[in-house]
Design goal:
It contains 17 helices and twelve strands. The chain has a seven-stranded mixed sheet with strand order 9-8-7-6-10-11-12, sandwiched between helices. A five-stranded mixed sheet has the order 1-2-4-3-5, sandwiched between helices. A hairpin with a 5-residue loop joins strand 1 and strand 2 (about 70-80). It is an alpha/beta fold. The two termini are about 20 Å apart. Helices cover about 50% and strands about 15% of the residues. It has two domains: about 5-185, Rossmann fold (3-Layer(aba) Sandwich), CATH 3.40.50.10860; about 205-365, Rossmann fold (3-Layer(aba) Sandwich), CATH 3.40.50.720.
């Protein structure tokens, strides 16, 4: 495989799609050696087929705001790869959403879902609609209009969406309600649904909880655990909330959260009711964390700054892509960070990842660390299909097993001769091999 040739061809076809090209390059760099040992992959153009989405749907979403004015947004669904199962992946509502971002997310999702051990293909969708400052009724009308444009492409064995940034239980409820009305069947074609209508226990917590179970596995390999460790978390959404809850439960002290306005440092630890206060901040719809420092005077708000400047043992980026850059990474290394686990998708820039790996920091990528979210979605699909709902204990036990299995795959493919575990390489190769083998066995299609 000639990575530069492939990347050049891709750049000509998809000019300026920087997040997508970044995600593809990272995977190609990780898998090139393994790929070259399989001439049948090259003959069947596995890479060329894998980096291109199977299908992209774009549609206009027109809805009425509270003033009765007509609003237009763009809706997308990128069905990336269904070699190992139905398309599966979240929906993102954020002003920044564009095709490059959704293609990078769909590409990553394909490998992540492969790592979960469950039969799910990769997809992602969303809209440039910004939920910030919108009323509940506006959100509902937007969700309904979005589904009017998308529903024909979905189905329990075809494509199963879920939440992502800007899409939580409320939005999934509104989207699923409209979907159900249109198909006139209660098929469970969304995950992240409310528990009363087919949702899974622990789905809201699963991304954050799973991430901490993964971190436990990373630490266990070094005969360490979370007790007494300080943790920097970015973001203050659903994922940050789940991660802070579990980190605290396991004996660590979470000292930061962040928003688009800056970050909060709380030396006493963000625990108990302070964690739940995050949810109040989120539901206010303002998208800022500054009020935390007014409510809890022991904390300090740093406007316009990132939490990575604080000295901590563990850093958990939980906000969005490329939130840790090379400069941040160098500062974290200088401050003696011991472990960095991306909970956001592609949370670190390539420069930051290089810095962590060069310095032998215990670093793991999002597609391994945050896979507990979509894994729990897979468990929700199973529960819907068998018309049963499991207890939180059953779901949690499975989540533990799945995160341990993902860690084992990283270890199998990422352990270097010098004893450094390169999780990025391990996760990329493990995910790639599963999808590549499935594509090979299904012929040239
Ligand atoms: O990035 C992700 O894995 C998600 N947003 C969750 C996807 C899902 O289908 O649960």
């Amino acid at each position: 495989m000639d990575i530069n040739n492939i990347m050049n061809a891709l750049e000509v076809k998809h000019p300026g799609e920087k997040e997508y090209l970044q995600a593809v390059r990272e995977v190609l760099m990780s898998v090139v050696d393994v790929y070259n040992q399989h001439p049948e992959f090259e003959r069947n153009k596995i890479i060329e087929r894998m980096v291109e989405p199977d299908k992209i749907v774009t549609f206009r979403v027109t809805w009425l705001d509270d003033k009765g004015e007509v609003q237009n947004n763009i809706g997308y669904r990128v069905q990336f790869n269904n070699a190992i199962g139905p398309y599966k992946g979240g929906i993102r509502f954020h002003a920044s959403v564009n095709l490059s971002i959704l293609k990078f997310l769909g590409f990553e999702q394909t490998f992540k879902n492969a790592l979960t051990t469950l039969p799910m293909g990769g997809a992602k969708g969303g809209s440039d609609f910004s939920p910030r400052g919108k009323s509940d009724r506006e959100i509902m009308r937007f969700c309904q209009a979005f589904i009017l444009g998308l529903w024909k492409n979905l189905g329990p064995d075809r494509d199963v969406p879920a939440g992502d940034i800007g899409v939580g239980g409320r939005e999934v409820g509104y989207m699923y309600g409209m979907y159900k009305k249109l198909v006139d069947e209660h098929t469970g074609t969304f995950t992240g649904k409310g528990f009363d209508f087919g949702g899974s226990r622990l789905r809201p917590e699963a991304t954050g909880f799973g991430a901490l179970y993964f971190v436990q596995n990373m630490l266990a390999l070094k005969n360490e655990d979370l007790k007494g460790k300080t943790v920097a978390i970015s973001g203050f959404g659903n994922v940050a909330w789940g991660a802070a809850t579990k980190a605290t439960e396991l004996g660590a002290k979470v000292v930061t959260i962040s928003g688009p306005d800056g970050y909060v440092y709380d030396p006493d630890g963000i625990s108990g009711e302070k964690i739940d206060y995050m949810l109040d901040l989120r539901s206010s719809g303002d998208d800022i964390v500054a009020p935390y420092a007014e409510k809890y005077p022991g904390a300090t708000f740093y406007p316009g700054k990132k939490p990575w400047e604080q000295k901590v043992d563990i850093a958990l980026p939980c906000a969005t892509q490329n939130e840790v850059n090379g400069e941040d990474a160098r500062q974290m290394v200088a401050n003696g960070v011991k472990l960095v686990a991306e909970v956001s998708n592609m949370g670190c820039t390539p420069e930051a990842i290089d810095c962590f790996i060069e310095n032998r920091i215990n670093y793991a990528p999002g597609k391994a660390v945050n896979a507990g979210g979509v894994a729990c979605s897979g468990l929700e699909m199973t529960q819907d299909a068998e018309h049963l709902q499991w207890t939180a204990e059953e779901v949690d036990a499975k989540l533990h097993q799945i995160m341990a299995a993902i860690h084992a795959q990283c270890e199998k493919y990422g352990m270097q001769e010098d004893g450094y575990l390169n999780y990025m390489k391990g996760a990329n190769i493990a995910g790639f091999m599963k999808v590549a083998n499935a594509m090979m066995e299904q012929g040239v299609i």
